[in-house]
């Protein structure tokens, strides 16, 4: 194994808490009462896959995630009877960039730092380059490279999202391990010949989460967190 590539939203960072935190500040600043920030974060995230599917299916050209997030933000605001046209554009841009300021799970930086000693580590995210760079700089995430949809021009789980990433790294598929908290992401990576590692994030969707609580297949690694992944990988070298 020469490289480990990581899903980011949910696997590396706690998107729900971070988006809810910034939404709460936005609502307070604009005196928008009665909107639960966690419900708002969930509603915004629920538009994530449909927006990317339009690109995957060819209904629209590849469009970077910051733009899709902004379009979805305006849709969600209207669902909560908030007219985005009556809000300051800079304030909307600041809320949209909440995805750039998400906090990593507690084990992430220490685990990645260990893994980085002998392996290449990079995001394999649907997030665009600016988003990934800003997130990493703020949180101290020690990536060796920034990979993902804007580099491969493909959104997971489309096969090119994995195969082009492997090609860019200059490795064979079996030399790259996809790490994710989502079984469908790992299934798609495995279909492309990559190794796989499952890390459960049982509170990604809150305390009532029902999905991805356990591995659905016999992934190459099944671990509690990034520290355990690093320990197992380094001990096998």
TrEMBL record:
<dbReference type="InterPro" id="IPR023214">
    <property type="entry name" value="HAD_sf"/>
</dbReference>
<dbReference type="Pfam" id="PF00702">
    <property type="entry name" value="Hydrolase"/>
</dbReference>
<protein>
    <submittedName>
        <fullName>Haloacid dehalogenase type II</fullName>
    </submittedName>
</protein>
<dbReference type="InterPro" id="IPR051540">
    <property type="entry name" value="S-2-haloacid_dehalogenase"/>
</dbReference>
<dbReference type="InterPro" id="IPR006328">
    <property type="entry name" value="2-HAD"/>
</dbReference>
<dbReference type="InterPro" id="IPR006439">
    <property type="entry name" value="HAD-SF_hydro_IA"/>
</dbReference>
<keyword id="KW-0378">Hydrolase</keyword>
<dbReference type="GO" id="GO:0019120">
    <property type="term" value="F:hydrolase activity, acting on acid halide bonds, in C-halide compounds"/>
</dbReference>
<dbReference type="InterPro" id="IPR036412">
    <property type="entry name" value="HAD-like_sf"/>
</dbReference>
């Amino acid at each position: 194994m020469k490289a480990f590539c990581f899903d980011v939203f949910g696997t590396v960072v706690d998107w729900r808490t971070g988006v809810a935190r910034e939404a709460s500040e936005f609502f307070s600043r604009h005196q928008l009462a009665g909107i639960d920030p966690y419900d708002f974060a969930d509603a915004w995230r629920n538009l994530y896959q449909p927006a990317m599917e339009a690109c995957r299916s060819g209904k629209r050209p590849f469009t970077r995630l910051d733009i899709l997030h902004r379009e979805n933000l305006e849709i969600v605001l209207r669902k909560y009877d908030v007219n985005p046209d009556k809000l300051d554009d800079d304030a909307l841009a600041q809320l949209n960039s909440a995805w750039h300021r998400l906090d990593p799970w507690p084990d992430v930086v220490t685990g990645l730092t260990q893994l980085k000693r002998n392996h290449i580590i990079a995001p394999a995210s649907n997030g665009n380059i600016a988003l990934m760079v800003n997130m990493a700089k703020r949180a101290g995430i020690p990536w060796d490279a920034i990979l993902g949809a804007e580099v491969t021009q493909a959104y997971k789980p489309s096969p090119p999202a994995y195969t082009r990433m492997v090609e860019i790294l200059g490795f064979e598929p079996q030399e790259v391990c996809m790490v994710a908290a989502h079984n469908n992401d790992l299934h798609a990576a495995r279909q492309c010949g990559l190794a796989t590692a499952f890390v459960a994030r049982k509170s990604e969707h809150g305390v009532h989460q029902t999905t991805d609580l356990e591995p659905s297949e016999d992934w190459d690694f099944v671990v509690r967190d990034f520290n355990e992944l690093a320990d197992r990988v380094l001990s096998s070298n």
